[in-house]
Amino acid sequence: MRNISIVLFVFIATSCTKAVFKSKWTLEKAPENFVTRFETSKGDFEIVIERKASPYAVDRYYQLVNHHLLDSVLVYRMVPKFVAQFGITDTLKTNPWKEYKVPDEKVLKSNLKGNLSFARSVKDSRNFDLFINLENNTRLDTINYEKVTGFPAFGTVTKGMEVVESFYSGYGNETMDKYDSLASNRKQFLKVFPKLDVIRKVYILKNE
User: Fold this and answer.
1) Is 114:156 a contact under the CB 8 Å cutoff?
2) What's the CATH fold of domain 29-205?
3) What is the tens place of the pLDDT at every residue in 136-156?
4) For 174, which of 81, 161, 167, 182 is 20 to 30 Å away at the CA?
5) Where does residue 128 rank: exposed (0-12), middle (13-18), buried (19+ CB within 10 A)?
């Protein structure tokens, strides 16, 4: 049976620089609809975001994109016919956001192929990791995990789905067994999994 857990792990990382954070960022409201472009090691793709599908999630996604927190992140989990998962693993960047929870919401938009959702672990834990469905994973709409039901989707890949599907998938779920080393030592993690793809830049397209 395919592993269907989509979880968020938090670990302690070390760094010699302090990450910039302003609490007012967490108050920013997203537009009702907008497009984000992803520039990656395999090419570009675009996702149309719908705030009404999951307002709290979209506001947090908008904040992360707007302040460049999704730049230079790894596609650390790529399971064919399941999901492409990526996120922010630098805890110096994520720690300041932890107290600003994203409340859980009902699933209004299904986890169909090409749709974007936040990963989560426990209650109100959607925050730093996301996944794109590589097939129709409708079971993720109703699965109960840690007493929370479903993973609300809120965006759809409209251009470049072939790019998403081309991310390196040879490691499958193997990377999740060593996820702690990604947070604490990205270079070491990449020595073990050198073929992982990178999301180099994510930004909002204007007037589209």
Assistant:
1) yes
2) Cyclophilin (2.40.100)
3) 999 999 999 889 999 999 999
4) 161
5) buried
